[in-house]
Design brief:
Blueprint lengths: L1 H18 L3 H11 L5 H23 L5 H21 L5 H29 L14 H18 L4 H10 L5 H22 L9 H24 L2 H23 L1
Helix pairs in contact: 1-2, 1-9, 2-3, 2-10, 3-8, 3-9, 4-6, 4-8, 5-10, 6-8, 7-8
Pfam family, one: TauE
Keywords: Cell membrane, Membrane, Transmembrane, Transmembrane helix
Organism: Arcanobacterium phocisimile
């Protein structure tokens, strides 16, 4: 079991490092269906795994992080994450997985369409790192909503944060995926702390082996994002979300 957790963790880490997201959306189904963890325990364990992986991946991509946007967005998301983390244990395991899969499907479709459209015009946004500002209220609402979703599902937030940073703040995906790592660390810690006293238990041997292996994979995956075109990263991201959504729905039925 521990060996399997380590092998899978390396693969998850590569995805997180390369895309700035994906660790939680992969970790939760793997913990539930492969490593046989209860769904609510898996959401807490994934926060540990994703938080550690994102922290290490940040060291390879710090030049691409918009720290001011990341800290501002993350601080607001923490509030939502605390609320979502307290609500999550009130939902049945199977219902939690189904809701999780539906959310992934919706986000995956949006990102896939955006990537295909960008590939046709040869550019998603300006690649110089400039940010197209949106109204303050839009940033506040999306940050709180993102935090609530990530706290509720226990996935760190990368799969929602990256699209939000791109679609709402106008950050190019290389910068968005890097900035999301900072936000993932912040929301993972807050979501984990908020689960204290809810009866959720963490299998620490499996979680730590998975997490350490994922951290090593994150070191490998980080430089990959700097060599890939934004359009392809967006399409890969969308396909990944749709694939995990389909798998989760099939297994929950």
């Amino acid at each position: 079991m521990l060996f399997l957790a380590g092998v899978i963790g390396i693969g998850v880490g590569i995805v997180v490092g390369a895309l700035g997201a994906g660790g939680g959306i992969l970790a939760v189904p793997i913990l539930v269906y492969v490593l046989q963890q209860p769904a609510h325990n898996a959401t807490a364990e994934s926060l540990v795994i994703v938080g550690l992986t994102a922290l290490v991946a940040m060291t390879t991509r710090w030049r691409y992080i918009h720290f001011s946007s990341g800290f501002t967005f993350g601080a607001l998301a923490i509030i939502g994450a605390i609320v979502g983390s307290r609500l999550s244990p009130l939902v049945a395991d199977n219902a939690l997985i189904v809701m999780f899969a539906v959310l992934l499907c919706l986000v995956g479709i949006v990102m896939l369409r955006k990537g295909i459209r960008a590939l046709r015009v040869h550019s998603i946004t300006s690649q110089d790192g400039d940010i197209t500002r949106r109204p303050l209220w839009a940033v506040v609402v999306t940050a709180l909503g993102t935090g609530m979703l990530t706290g509720f599902f226990g996935v760190g937030g990368g799969f929602v944060v990256v699209p939000v940073l791109i679609l709402v703040l106008g950050i190019p995906i290389q910068y968005a995926s890097s900035t999301s790592l900072l936000i993932m660390v912040m929301t993972s810690i807050s979501g984990l702390v908020a689960r204290i006293g809810t009866g959720v238990e963490i299998d620490w041997p499996v979680t730590l082996v998975f997490g350490v292996a994922s951290m090593l994979g994150g070191i490998v995956g980080g430089p990959l994002a700097q060599r890939a075109r934004s359009e392809y990263l967006t399409i890969i991201f969308g396909c990944l979300l749709l694939g995990v959504a389909g798998f989760s729905l099939a297994m929950s039925l």
